[in-house]
Inverse folding.
């Protein structure tokens, strides 16, 4: 929805990323995958000790020098990309294929501000070279829009919603090794992103524009809900960070001055934020202004990050399949001074 949206292995895996970055996008993606796969699944209430990513991200500010280190082009139709995740063996990319765009109603009808449109939800499974291995179709009826995804070390979590606010969504769980898909539960709202809180074993999702969060148990019982206190960006793709935090990236489209085209020529502001899942506070948020081949801000949709001490590595895939050079997985690195 781009217009609205581990435990102690982080350090070792991210070190592989840094060493491999000179070898190109494939090596970087593989190292990132090792990091995610070695995280423990969300069994709930287990001890978490590694705070490397949280500590390093607290050193990110507006002056952080992010350098692009690799680019991995995907050579298959990717449509509109949404979320990305890595396991030991695979890269996962969610995307929506639009068959019929939604259309705004002059006035709301039956609680909706637009038609449902039509589309197909895709979860692409790739090897570490970016070669397509499987195209998994997700969704039912009007629910065809996959969002941001999260990998808990065993399972991939994917929300698939209607492409309109205040609607409905299905939460899917997929075994990252067998690729078996299970429909976990349905929820009565558009949820465009999800993370597994490994400390509690609960799921946390964000609604259209990330204006609200909800927490569920694995049976779909809503345990809490809260308003997003931050209006800086709309979160698109998030990941879990020990202890009980989530790191999100996103975008907001801001109007230009009349001389630059006015409201019809919007400006993409990108950014990242870390959220405390216990207090529900935004711990830190920073802008991110690096641009893709097609001219999109890099945090537009798919996003994941790892840390090795004070070195951060970020992978993103902001461009759609029919834009620029097609979808490319971009890798950025930065060195920070962690906040005390």
């Amino acid at each position: 929805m781009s217009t609205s949206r581990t435990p102690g292995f982080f350090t070792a895996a991210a070190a592989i990323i840094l060493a491999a970055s000179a070898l190109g996008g494939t090596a970087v993606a593989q190292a990132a995958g090792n990091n995610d796969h070695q995280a423990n699944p969300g069994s709930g209430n287990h001890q978490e000790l590694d705070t490397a990513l949280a500590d390093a991200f607290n050193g990110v500010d507006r002056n952080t020098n992010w350098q692009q280190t690799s680019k991995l082009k995907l050579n298959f139709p990717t449509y509109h990309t949404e979320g990305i995740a890595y396991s030991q063996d695979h890269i996962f990319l969610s995307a929506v294929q639009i068959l019929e765009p939604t259309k705004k109603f002059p006035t709301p009808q039956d609680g909706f501000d637009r038609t449902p449109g039509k589309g197909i939800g895709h979860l692409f499974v790739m090897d570490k070279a970016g070669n397509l291995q499987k195209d998994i179709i997700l969704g039912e009826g009007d629910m065809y829009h996959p969002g941001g995804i999260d990998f808990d070390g065993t399972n991939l979590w994917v929300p698939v919603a209607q492409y309109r606010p205040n609607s409905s969504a299905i939460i899917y769980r997929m075994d990252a090794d067998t690729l078996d898909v299970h429909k976990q539960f349905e929820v009565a709202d558009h949820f465009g992103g999800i993370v597994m809180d490994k400390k509690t074993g609960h799921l946390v999702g964000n609604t259209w524009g990330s204006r609200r969060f909800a927490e569920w148990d694995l049976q779909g019982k809503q345990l809490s809900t809260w308003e997003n206190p931050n209006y800086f960006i709309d979160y698109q793709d998030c990941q879990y960070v020990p202890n009980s935090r989530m790191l999100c990236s996103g975008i907001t489209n801001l109007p230009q001055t009349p001389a630059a085209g006015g409201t019809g020529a919007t400006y993409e502001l990108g950014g990242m934020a870390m959220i405390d899942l216990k207090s529900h506070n935004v711990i830190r948020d920073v802008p991110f202004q690096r641009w893709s081949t097609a001219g999109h801000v890099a945090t537009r949709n798919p996003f994941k990050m790892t840390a090795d001490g004070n070195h951060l590595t970020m992978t993103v895939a902001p461009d759609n399949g029919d834009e620029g050079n097609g979808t490319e997985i971009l890798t950025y690195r930065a060195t920070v001074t962690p906040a005390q």
